[in-house]
Amino acid sequence: MGKKRDQAANKSAKKKSHKRRIFLTSTGLALLSKIAKKAALSKSALVEQIALGSIAIASPQANKTINLITTETLEKEATNIEIVTDPQPALKEEISNVEKQLALEKSHLAQQAASYEALNTELQQQISLNQQLQQQLKQTQGLVAQEAASNRSLQQKIQAQSTQIENLEKKLTELQSLARIGESQLNKWRKF
Description:
The chain has helices at residues 2-13, 26-38, 43-52, 88-191; strands spanning 64-72, 77-85. It is mainly alpha-helical. The longest helix is centred in the last third of the chain and has 104 residues, at 88-191. The protein is rod-shaped, with a radius of gyration of 58 Å. The relative contact order is 0.04. Residues 106-185 form a coiled coil.
């Protein structure tokens, strides 16, 4: 069964195959066998397909990624090999930056919410204080109106008393002139 797979892989490669040796650790060989079995290929066909770029194996633990870029020109087919060392750190760094920015935005939002709550509490206190001051103002206006009425009443009493004093002073002046006349008459009688 392995030979049939090798023959199919060789036909797809359209090139003559040569025997080569690849040295692998026992772990590497076990994994290669497992991958080849799942792909329904022989180990040789799997390695060849990977080398040709027909099969790509992605691993999240990979430290390096190799990109095969095949370009065909009129003269020949060219394959550029680009080795990317650990593509994960760039992605991890970008994720870390986004997470930091998200945490910063959450913190900023929490600060704004706290600030909003503080302002709302202060506003409620100001409204309550304003209502108290309005009530005090109404009470004060009532007292001022009472005081004004009381002042008018007192001013009227003062005016009445001033008029009364003037009248009494006039009477006193009249009585004093009469008293002088009476005293002079009395003095005449005493001399006799």
